[in-house]
């Protein structure tokens, strides 16, 4: 099966989540090809995992004042900061991609570590879902499987806005700096270099071609994005 | 209402919130940064504990959760039904202790 690669696009957080869910939905129905999509959040934001309580993990009033988006993802896992990152998603039917979380994390996180190695950064996969460099987190990932399709989401921190992200999550910049690092701390690679390195590792051994989002996918994504903007979904846990 | 937070063997956070009425479990809810899918099946796990006696052991609670998960086709990562049961049992013990 031929994979589609979508070059990095900027969208709001809710739209990015809507796109991933739409692609998974349409991949399950065989209306969309398995897709590896690169993206960033504009404006920056914070997302929490499917079973996390947003009001406990995120300082929502501060976020609103600072223009930082916040939402609850469809995928599980923990709190993720979307400030200066190269994010990616893999959406595919369960028969072309590991449908069990542990297998999927092992596969993708080791690919991300290889991509970072190609930029001269010694990184490693730390189970369950983290990518580490120099003893700190440099990338996160998350997973779910629904209606026959996988949604795998993750990112590598290219830079990191410690002040904003610390304020948004109620911690201190110093504490966050103890736990998080970014590509810029190790390498002079550009954001584009990072995306290319990730693309090379993700597509190794796959048949693929570049593509863009189809009109039907965007329309469905816009519908779904409304849920990720609303209180009903975001605060339902 | 009592809640119990714990860190799972896989290093994930798990919180169980339990409410009791007349020594029976009225409601249970789980939250945390673990993986469980299909996501909707979480409700089946929570429902499987509604109405049980507050005196049930951790093992009995774990068995109920395991059966509910099997029936719903639930897959989990970062958390197990045994860890969920432990969090519930500890929350129940705390609630009964404070009653």
Topology:
The complex is a heterodimer of chains A (237) and B (99).
Chain A (H helix, E strand, L loop, with lengths): L2 E9 L1 H16 L6 E7 L3 E4 L5 H4 L2 H7 L2 E4 L7 E3 L2 E9 L7 H18 L4 E4 L3 E4 L2 E11 L2 E9 L4 H8 L3 H7 L11 H13 L4 E3 L4 H15 L1 H4 L3
Parallel strand pairs in A: 1-2, 1-11, 3-4
Antiparallel strand pairs in A: 2-6, 3-5, 6-10, 7-8, 8-9, 9-10
Helix pairs in contact in A: 1-8, 4-7, 5-6
Chain B lengths: L1 E6 L5 E9 L2 E9 L2 E3 L3 H7 L10 H15 L2 E3 L3 H18 L1
Antiparallel strand pairs in B: 1-2, 2-3, 4-5
Helix pairs in contact in B: 1-2, 2-3
Task: State the gist of this model.
The complex is a heterodimer of chains A (237) and B (99). Chain A is α/β, with parallel strands linked by helices and 237 residues long.
Can you describe this structure?
The complex is a heterodimer of chains A (237) and B (99). Chain A is 39% helix and 28% strand. Chain A is built from 9 helices and 11 strands. Chain A is globular and about 45 Å long. In chain A, the strands form 2 sheets. An 8-stranded mixed sheet of chain A has the order 7-8-9-10-6-2-1-11, sandwiched between helices. The longest helix of chain A is centred in the middle third of the chain and has 18 residues, at 101-118. In chain B, 40% of the residues lie in helices and 30% in strands. Chain B contains 3 helices and 5 strands. In chain B, strand 1 (2-7) and strand 2 (13-21) form a beta hairpin. Chain B is globular. The chains are: A alpha/beta (237), B alpha+beta (99).
Descriptors for this entry?
heterodimer, A: 237 residues, 39% helix, 28% strand, B: 99 residues, alpha+beta, 3-stranded antiparallel beta sheet, two-stranded antiparallel sheet, globular
Q: Label the structural class of chain B.
A: alpha+beta
Placed side by side, the strands forming the largest sheet of chain B appear as 1-2-3
Structural class of chain A: alpha/beta
Tell me the greatest interface: A-B, 25 and 19 residues
- Give me the strand/helix succession of chain B: EEEEHHEH
Instruction: Characterize the biggest β-sheet of chain B.
Output: 3 strands, antiparallel
Report the mean per-residue pLDDT of chain B as an integer: 96
């Amino acid at each position: 099966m031929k994979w589609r690669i979508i070059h990095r696009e900027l969208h709001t957080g809710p739209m990015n989540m809507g796109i991933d869910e739409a692609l998974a939905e349409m991949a399950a129905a065989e209306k969309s090809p398995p897709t590896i999509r690169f993206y960033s959040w504009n404006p920056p934001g914070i997302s929490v995992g499917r079973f996390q309580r947003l009001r406990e993990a995120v300082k929502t009033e501060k976020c609103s004042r600072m223009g930082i988006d916040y939402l609850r993802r469809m995928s599980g896992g923990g709190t993720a900061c979307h400030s200066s990152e190269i994010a990616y998603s893999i959406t595919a039917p369960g028969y072309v991609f590991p449908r069990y979380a542990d297998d999927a994390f092992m596969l993708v996180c080791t690919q991300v570590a290889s991509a970072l190695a190609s930029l001269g950064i010694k990184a490693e996969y730390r189970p369950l879902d983290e990518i580490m460099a120099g003893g700190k987190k440099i990338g996160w990932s998350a997973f779910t499987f629904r209606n026959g399709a996988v949604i795998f989401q993750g990112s590598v921190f290219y830079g990191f806005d410690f002040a904003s992200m610390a304020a948004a999550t109620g911690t201190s910049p110093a504490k966050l700096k103890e736990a998080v690092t970014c590509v810029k701390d190790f390498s002079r690679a550009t954001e584009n270099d990072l995306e290319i390195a990730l693309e090379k590792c993700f597509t190794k051994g796959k048949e693929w071609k570049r593509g863009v989002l189809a009109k039907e996918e965007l329309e469905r994504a816009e519908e779904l994005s409304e849920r990720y903007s609303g209180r009903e979904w975001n605060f339902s846990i | 209402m009592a809640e119990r937070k714990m860190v799972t063997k896989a290093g994930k956070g798990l919180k169980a919130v339990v409410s009791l009425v007349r020594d029976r479990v009225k409601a249970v809810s789980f939250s945390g940064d673990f993986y469980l899918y299909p996501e909707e099946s979480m409700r089946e796990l929570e429902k499987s504990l509604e109405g049980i006696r507050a005196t049930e052991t951790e093992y009995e609670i774990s068995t109920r959760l395991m059966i509910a998960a099997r029936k719903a086709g639930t897959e989990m990562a970062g958390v197990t039904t045994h860890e969920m049961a432990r969090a519930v049992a500890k929350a129940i013990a705390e609630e009964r202790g404070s009653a």
